[in-house]
Amino acid sequence: xxxxxxTLSDQGIKLFLNGxxxxxxxxxxxxxxxDLFHSDYDDSxxxxxxxxxxxxxxxxxxxxxxxxxxxxxSSVSHTIKLILTHDKKMTRQQLTKNVRFFVDVMKLxxxxxxxxxxxxxxxxxxHPIMANLSYRLQKWAPxxxxxxxxxxxxxxxxxxVKFWQTYHEENSLPSLFAFYHYIQRCEWQGRTxxxxxxxxxxxxxxxxxxxxxxxxxxYKxSSVSHFELQQLSYKFT
Length: 237
Fold this sequence. Notes:
By secondary structure, the chain is mostly helical. Helices cover 63% and strands 0% of the residues.
């Protein structure tokens, strides 16, 4: 049986996993059987999803801060950069592997209720630079991406905000991208009542999703310039 190797680059581990190393347990019979059906790819996927959820919880507490908008922009640009790079030689085949890994993260995060991480990756995959590239998605991916896109209901995000007015699940997190743009739009349109209602929901999320782990580095970096992303993407156009 051929197992998939770790896809996330060293830079990806630094940004998404805060540079933590995988601690290997001693191999017993149970672990050896587990290893037959489990790979470094699975380990990376599960760790990124788990760490991203904790990071999303921390990001809720930064909502409305002076650096919040920059954090959102930075996370998208660095996710795109991670998709376009690798520790070794970057090839078109590796591009497909990278894209599929992040699609897997998006799907699993969405299914687990971490809508912030799912939306982050959707933004990265929908970026014009990514849209101009050629790669092969998993067979199920287009329909799942469509489902996720419809769930958020951009560009107004009315659907997503209304969803959270009636949905209450302690372990789920909204898309902060959606709430941020919704509140900005309401303020611009003078819809004060709707804006204040959304802001009250954010305050509730802050109470329910306190995390001491802190943000992933993906949210802390300066944004990658459009020029740099273009340069990375040229070999695949």
